[in-house]
Write the structure tokens for this entry.
Amino acid sequence: MAEMIPHWLTKQALLAPQKIAIETETGESITFLQLEKQSKHFAKKLATLDIGEGSHVGILSANEIPMIIAIHALSYLGAVTVLLNTRLTEEELTYQIKDAKVSMIMTSQDYKSDVKKIGFHIPVKSFSMIRQLSEKQVKLRSEINLNANFSIIYTSGTTGLPKGVIHTYGNHWASAIGSALNLGLNANEKWLAMLPIFHVSGLSVFMKSVIYGMPVLLFNKFDAKKVNQAIIERGVTIVSVVTVMLQRMIEELGDSQYPETFRCMLLGGGPAPKTLLVEAKNNQIPVFQTYGMTETASQIVTLSPHEALRKIGSAGKPLFTAQLKINNPDVKGVGEIYVKGPMVTKGYFNNESATAALFDENWLVTGDLGYVDHEGFLYVMDRRSDLIISGGENIYPAEVEAVLVGMNHIKEVGVVGVDDAVWGKVPIAFVVKSSPSITAKEIMDYAKEKLATYKVPKQIYFVKQLPRNASNKLMRKELLKLM
Amino acid sequence: MAEMIPHWLTKQALLAPQKIAIETETGESITFLQLEKQSKHFAKKLATLDIGEGSHVGILSANEIPMIIAIHALSYLGAVTVLLNTRLTEEELTYQIKDAKVSMIMTSQDYKSDVKKIGFHIPVKSFSMIRQLSEKQVKLRSEINLNANFSIIYTSGTTGLPKGVIHTYGNHWASAIGSALNLGLNANEKWLAMLPIFHVSGLSVFMKSVIYGMPVLLFNKFDAKKVNQAIIERGVTIVSVVTVMLQRMIEELGDSQYPETFRCMLLGGGPAPKTLLVEAKNNQIPVFQTYGMTETASQIVTLSPHEALRKIGSAGKPLFTAQLKINNPDVKGVGEIYVKGPMVTKGYFNNESATAALFDENWLVTGDLGYVDHEGFLYVMDRRSDLIISGGENIYPAEVEAVLVGMNHIKEVGVVGVDDAVWGKVPIAFVVKSSPSITAKEIMDYAKEKLATYKVPKQIYFVKQLPRNASNKLMRKELLKLM
């Protein structure tokens, strides 16, 4: 059934025409009325290139205002945005463009040459080239069908071929509403966006912007010092971060403090080391852990403001319209995390078998392991595929990592299982030092003190950095290549 | 299509178990967890009376916590609440009970005898009688289908037979979300509810309560002094009022002031005299006019906080998911107000012809006249049925009333048209004096100064009070009986 609401950008331009929609690090800004007008003009220019209802258009862009205009323009035409990760190799890019049946690619200036290289013959246009086109008088969407497709984003899966996650308007809508019901919505809200917009964590901030009528402070890329400065000086109330960013921000912050109006550091991108969370707490930084994935249009489980300090280490409770269960829990209550709700994707584009495997009845099978405590709080343990079974015991790499990263002179740790004739699998650790003095023996001794013997890594490898994907998630399978 | 979300009360009991859901004037209170548990127990007791999926159960009750428990209990059973106005006559009550196919009536202690009188043979049970029953082990709803029926409320129509407006869960959901996006949602929110819960304006506060996780301060009835005191002393941030209440509250407040944390006086129930709005502004009272009706599950157009002072007299802009148009406007832009959105009813229960007449394509035909200014703000003029056409000129009674009520020594005014051999219709006025000294001639002279000749009432009648319906709306047709 079509569920129609007014086009969200048109609506916000009516409700708050003069309010800032986006401001950038360098001082550019655009109001909701300007954003609407420019997006509509851009749509009419795109129409001359035969982009319309159902077209799939790739966007390969830095975090910049023209990218947001392009996304809204496609929506005014009933076309679908395919967001392309700018860190992809030519081969990966070619695969996604073909798989998503993209008929044209739009780029910001920086990435035009990247696309030219790939030797895949579809039109490639920069935003500025499109702005120079004349306009075709087409009827633009005045309403949104919440069941229609809005965007496709490929999962940065660590194994297998990437899959294009479809997000309907309703998925983004449910995500924004769920977050507002959890975090509240203040009159002065301003969200700092620095995660790549080609990830759903970055994109979702701009969906919230048009739905809430909220200004976004847009950063092209992460810089701990500049981000801290912006939080302190520019009225930021909420920022989305991943663990590595939070670490650097806390280091960079030193003895300075964020102002009281800064009320939420929304932390996603996988389980965070408890030591980091405690450090944040000691610095009075309001960190709220979240759990989510591309398939859930960003967060689906989040700690709420009044629980954040009491439940350190938990990802919180499912958002208002979401539900959570642990499938087939073991004696300790640990099992695979299943979720459902209106923010959950209807599936992967053009991939029925992967879509079928994604659901168990109406529940989304996340592939992550976790448990729920007696009060209903979720604790995420690890990717199910990363679980190490050693002599019949379950070892969660994230648990071992979280312990080791709490040791002095250690910056980052990655743990993975290797084959073992006796135990089946045993854990080994890859360590990035923060000071040269530390030795493998010291680390082993520390681990033996803190962990059951079977969880203690059998080998320590020192490395310069850990393999992370474009979402900054640790790719544990890649660790094996560093042995 | 079924759109499922978790049962909202169960969900809120999980998210904020220890938070106060409702507190009363006299100091009683109940947490979300207690509200959930008591509602579930009550549901299981109701199940022994054969109440279940699709049952229609009437509730005739004062504003009290057991009424809210009963409403949630019916929802856990998949039954529909039919809210009965306690001010109805026996005849009206009998009509509504039959029309809504009510199979049982629940009452608070005060109203039991009222129902006994009506001589209509269906079971009548007080809340306390039901609490004494044993429980039947039935499966309670854990999810809500947003397209299912939640409540039926009869419109207090000034003409014709009352009609039962169906509200789905989705209507109430859309209303609560639309309001949150307009007003924002602060961590300390507390809504004072004193409008009768049998009206949608009263009921909707309790829907917001479970959806937002927000405490409600519940008053059994309006008392200007007690309400002002509660706003000043009990952390109230928002209150819903109608014009007459606002007038009395301002009078009673005198030189006192509301605290800054009190951020919204949501004013509904028809166009308000501009003099009152200006008086509120001068007293720094944050009044936001709203426009809505039972058919829109309360407000559908509302002034937003940042526009309230600049746009006095306007009802604001349609809520985020709502749309508004003026049908068939005259040269001045005035025409009938049409609205649509997910908070709009799907129709009247068991009344296809009235439902068909309610819609023009997908738009709800409100029966109200108004215009939209160049910035998109709605100004509500009058009920279309109250419009006086005099010698081809349109006279809006509300406009004439608003002018006269601005005169000293006048408390309230009602204007209505009477037949006239020359002009077709002419306006006459019914005046409630606030001081005995004022004369009809003085009023006429004042009116001639302020209004075009054809708008000046041809007769002034002094009356003790104006006829108002249970929603405090002026019933202009009834004025004629006072001649």
